[in-house]
Amino acid sequence: MKPSINDVEARLRSTLHSVDHVELTEAVVRGRNQNSGARVAAIAMASLAVLGIGWTWNARQTAVLHSQAGSVSVTPYDTVPIVEWERGPLEAEMRTAEGTPGEAMQVVLQVGDHGCFPAGILRRQPEARDMPVREFIERYGTGWVAGAGKPDLCVERVPVPDDVRAFVNDLTEFSPDVFDKVGWTALLSDEEACYRRLYPAGLEQYSREFDRVGRELDDNLAEISAGTYSGLERLRQFDIEMATLQFRCKSETYARRQDLTRQYVAAFTSDPSRARHLSAVRTFVAQVGLDM
Amino acid sequence: MQTSPATDEVAVLYEQHRAGLRRWAIALTGSPELADELVQEAFAELKQRISSVEQPEAYLNQTLLNLARRAIRRRSRTLVAVPGDVAQEPAVDFDVDTWRALQQLPGTQRVVTVLRYRDDLSIAEIANRIGRSEATVKSLLHRSLRSLRKELS
Questions:
Q1: What is the pLDDT of residues A48-106, one digit of tens each?
Q2: If I label A238, which of A104, A208, A273, B76 is the partner at 20 to 30 A Cα–Cα?
Q3: Would you call A100 an interface residue with chain B, using a CB distance cutoff of 8 Å?
C-alpha cells in the first residue's frame, strides 16, 4: 500500500533531520557503496591508460601500472582501492570513491606527502595521518581496511592547473557513454556473476563479512598494532581468502579488460583537440615528480 | 608560522560551520566522503575570495549547494548502486528505506527535497537558491513525492 503524502513528508523530515546521526548514516552509505571500488579501479586504470601508462596483473593480486619511470599499484580490494606510487619520492595514497573517470584522475593528481586513511583509523590512531603508506601497511599488517569506510581524509593536495582540470572534466564528460559502449559495464556485471559463483554464501553474506571484519579491524587497531590481538591470524586468513576470490574473478576478465582499455583509449584520443590537454597533464605529472 | 588575517577568518568560519555544512552535504549527496570533499572545496573557494565576499556564511551555503549539485549530476550518470548491508541498529527517527529512496531520486529532485524537508525553505526560497522558477520547483517536488510514495509502498 502506498503511504500518504503526509506520511512521506513526515518520514522525510525525521530522516533528514536525523542525518546528524552521522555514524549511522555512514553505516548505511557504506552498505550502498560495497563493491564500488572495482569500478573505480577499472576507471583509474582506463584513465591512466589514457596517459600512456599500460597495466597488467602481477602474481600478488595487484594491478600494476607500469610507466617508464616507475609503477603504480592499485590494490584489488574492492572497498578501498588504494593507488600507491611505488617508486620515487612520492609515497601517496589517494582517496577514491565510486565515481567518474574524472574523479579517478583526481585520485591520480592529488599527489602529496601524506596518505589518506579512513577517518575511523585516524580518530583512534592519529599518528597514522603522517605515516607513509608502506609503514602503515607494515604496522597494521595489511593495507586492507575493508568495511572501515573509504579513505576520506586527504590532508595535502597539490594545486591542479586549469588545463589539467579541463582534461579531467573532459574525461568525466566523455567517459560514461563510452564505458557502456565498449562493454565495461557488462564486464563488471560478469565479474559480479563470478563472485556469486565462487562465493556460494552469496554476495550479501560477502558484504556482511567485509563489514564485520572491517569493524573488527577498526575496533582493535591498538592491539593489532601492538601485536597482541588474538584474532589477527583469522583476520589475515580472511584477507587472503577475499583477495584470492577477487583475483580469480578479475583474472577471468583480464584479456577483456586489456581490450576494453585499448578501445577506451582509442576512442578518447580520436579527437585531436584533446592533445593539448594531454600534453598539459603530462607536464603536470612530470612537475609533481613522476617522470612519464 | 604566521598566518594571514584572511586565513584566520576562514579558520574561524571552518570551526564554526564545518560540522553543519557537512551534515547538509551528506543529506544532499548521501555520501560522507563526498560531503567532506565538497565542504573542503567550498572553504577553499571562500579562502580565495574572502576579501571580496560580504556574507561568508551565505557564500559557503551557496557554493556548497552548487558543488553538491554538480557532484550529484556527475555521479548519477555513472553510479552503479549496489545495495548492500544496511545499519543493523537504526536510530529512532532514521528511516533507512526513506533514506535509500531519497538517494535514488534524480539530482535536482533530491536537492529540492532536501531544501524543503530538511531546511524548511519555502518554494520561493528554493527557487531562488537553485535558480529555477517557482513552478519548476513545485513540479520537481511533486515528482519527488510521487516517486518516494511509489518506492516506499
A1: 444 443 332 222 222 222 222 222 333 322 222 233 322 222 222 222 223 333 333 33
A2: A104
A3: yes
Rounded to a whole number, what is the distance in Å from the CA of A182 to chain B's nearest CA?
14
Between CA A97 and CA A86 the distance in angstroms is 21
The closest of A230, A30, A273, A5 to B148, measured between CA atoms, is A5
Say if residues A109 and A168 touch (Cβ distance below 8 Å).
yes
Contact (CB<8Å) B152/A3: yes
> How far is the CA of B28 from the CAs of A29, A162, B65, in angstroms?
13, 27, 8
- Alpha-carbon gap: A69 to the closest alpha carbon of chain B (Å): 31
How far apart are alpha carbons A95 and A110 in whole angstroms?
Answer: 9
Per-residue pLDDT of A208-231, as tens digits, reads 666 676 566 656 656 655 567 787
Q: Which residue has the cell 575496533?
A: A219
In whole angstroms, give the CA distance from residue A118 to residue A146. 10
Select from A93, A108, A90 the least CA-distant residue to A48: A108
Grid cell in block for residue B48: 580565495
CB-CB under 8 Å, A176 with B30: no
Give the mutation candidate from A16, A153, A204 for the B interface (greatest B CB count, under 10 A).
Answer: A16
Q: Is the ipTM of this complex over 0.85?
A: no
Residues of A in contact with B83 (CB under 8 A): 31-32
Q: What is the pLDDT of residue A120?
A: 38
Q: Which residue in the set B27, B34, B95 is minimally distant from A11, CB to CB? A: B95
